[in-house]
Design goal:
Layout lengths: L5 H16 L8 E6 L2 H6 L1 H14 L5 E6 L11 E4 L6 E3 L4 H13 L8 E3 L3 H7 L1
Length: 132
């Protein structure tokens, strides 16, 4: 392994710190939870979570936390993702591919728009009215 310069070490430290900070929930108002049970992983959840991380970095979103959880009980629609964002209903998306993960960041998190054809679960309309 080649030796690293001090500048390279500092850059590596800074990038690693950013990655660690993305998992911290303090002061963040958007949470994305990816189902990473065995059924989710087999269906492509690793690609989806990687895509979420890349898209969060690309848009420099500092208010978004990404987490993983076990099985959500929706094995028929894996990979599943739970998105909680202010001004939007808590939403579970199904069959989340890497491309859909990017779309969720752009449309749901940034644009405040549901991607209806992939929604598995969301609150009833009367509950949504109470939140607004």
């Amino acid at each position: 392994m080649a030796k690293m310069t001090l500048a390279q070490l500092k850059a590596l430290r800074d990038e690693t710190k950013k990655d660690i900070d993305r998992r911290d929930t303090e002061g963040k108002d958007v949470m994305i939870v990816v189902g990473m049970g065995t059924c989710g992983i087999a269906a492509g959840a690793k690609d989806a979570i990687s895509s979420f991380i890349d898209e969060i970095k690309e848009h420099d979103l500092t208010n978004v936390t990404i987490k993983q959880t076990g099985c959500m009980g929706l094995c028929h629609s894996e990979p599943t993702v739970d998105v909680k964002a202010p001004g939007m209903p808590d939403t579970i998306y199904g069959n989340v591919t890497a491309e859909l993960a990017k779309e969720i960041i752009v449309k749901h998190v940034i644009g405040k728009e549901l991607i209806s054809k992939h929604v598995l679960d969301r609150p009833a309309s009367d509950i949504m009215k109470e939140q607004n």
